[in-house]
Fold these 2 entries.
Entry 1:
Amino acid sequence: MIYNSLCGENISRLGMGNMRLPEKFGEGRPVIDFEKAQEIIDYAMANGINYFDTAYVYHGGDSEKFLGKALKNYPRESYKLATKFSYGANPDYKKVLQEQLEYLQTDYIDFYLLHGLGIGGNWNDFRDCGCIDYFMEMKEKGVIRHLGFSFHGTVDCLREIVAHHNWDFCQLQMNYYDWLHADTQKEYEIVTEAGLPVVVMESLRGGLLASLSPEAEAILKAAHPDWSTASWALRWLQRHPNVKVMLSGMSALEQIVDNVATCETDSALTDADEAVLFEACEQFRSNVLVPCTGCRYCVDTCPTQINIPEVLKVYNDHKDIPWTFMGLMRTGSKGKPMDCVSCGLCTEHCPQNIDVPHYMAALTDKLMPGRKK
């Protein structure tokens, strides 16, 4: 495993994201499959990963609890914990931090972040509620070692956040798809110029970049037959020197095995390889109708219990199949597209700013032509 310096700490290039842990059905809902998830954590520890990222809201609040149990048999100094304060989930930042320490079974957090700044104009809430001053007090006491933020917003909002406080680090959504088709490159330049080291989230864009279209994958295989599709995304990130940690939400053992193999040596793409990757990306983009990453921030707020990421995945995967067939697809969703009440809560919580009600209406029109809302 290659290690980088992040805030003076020796951190593995590959970080373990704990938002997409393997699940099973239990307690009337999907829950973390502890046995399979523990196997992934153990493999991470055995293979040099020492950065574990979670959040107060991941897996319905269970991710931190799982991680605290999963790491309890390892020496505390052998791993770094990163977790986040979500104002929208619970604005009582003092209570949240105390709960997180209990869930993670620790007395300090190595890397603490304000969660998802820029979503729905929430920066004002974080800025004005007093949490930054409090977290700085906790930093002075050693309860928090390094304070940063994760970001999903506009370029102007990012500039304001960067200028507001002397942050230790930041977490950006960064991958080659967003580099070409979003403001990612500009965001990376802003924080790099400000001297903020970057932890990358959505390295594989919620798994979207782990499996491309057949045409796009053929382009990549022609250049490097032995490379996995996912490894191209991680190799591309290695081209950027201010990227210190690449997070991947690995939900199966074969995923972490492949990602670890990619990060064991310096394997950054050459200029020629990047050109090949960008060609494949353009080919792939024509197949993506909705750029959902499957983060599930929208699911808990949906009043009709639509499993929005799964419905949108079907929408992407079956765009060329007769729409009546989609009514037979199993999405694990209690609510269906035609149940959408267009409340907009999903879009308000979406880091990608996807107009979910629009797509639910489009699906309804295809599945039930002539239906009146």
Entry 2:
Amino acid sequence: MKAIQYVEAGRPEWVEVPDPEAGKGQVVVAVRGVTTCPHWDLHIMAGKSMAPGGVVNYPYPVGQPGHEAMGEVTAVGPGVEDLKVGDTVAFWQDQGAGRSGCYAEQVLAEANNLLKVSPAYEPQQIASLELAMCVQVSFDQVLNITAIEGKRMAISGLGPAGLVALQMAKAYGAAEVIAFDPLSSRRELALELGATRVLNPLDEKAWPQDRFSPDALDLAIDCTGLNSAVQYLMHRTRSVVALFGVLREEVQFGFRHWCRGLHLVGYGDHNRAAAERALALIDTGKLRLDPLVSKTLPLTAYAEGVELLKAQQAIKVCFIP
């Protein structure tokens, strides 16, 4: 089979590798579609670790960093009971460091990393289930503290995660969803997906900097990981600010946040139950993943797709092996 492999930073190649064989607890999946994780793809292309302080070694594992994928089970190893040949599946979590990834014609998968999905789904509609699971984890963090229903909820950063988050906020009953992003094209898409208001956070007058005001935000999720974006929300939110974006800088929590009990919440653990909740939202039409895909390309055009992400000309790219 063939797959993408980074032989060095900035040099992904289309290489020939042995076909995978399913061992105990494993299945082989013929990949029908795989979507980019822009944060990860751009870091690996640039030779940088996605995790602060991490190190990237090349050649990178075959098929990585592809992990948002769907396809058809073509072989089942011993001990697998819940999946059979012919099932349509999607990955609900990344398989982990050192494992083969999904930028490939086929991928060896631990059966426990997959959820069975409807064969009617096109790749653009379901491949990013893993991202939806990740965002659901942040919503679970909020729900552990307070209800979302009837609240005014803000989403900062309208990349893939932010666009999922605003739909989840609506699905969980937020009375208003306020979306912040400096890019007008992403604000327009957020409106199409149901945001109540879309604002440019670079405009100092966009939203009052007063978390004690009746007009304050009740809840917020930051999907940028930027210190400035997190502080922006903290100054304007009365109850909970959840951090989804990978935080690379320290944020300042002071008297104005301590007073009246602002909760600043970090990220939680990936888990299958969160993936199942996210899949239920997709199955019921409350969450759409296909609007996140700006372009569909053959997998051989992987480098072209990453360039579109770098130029902010695409939110996500879906590759078809």
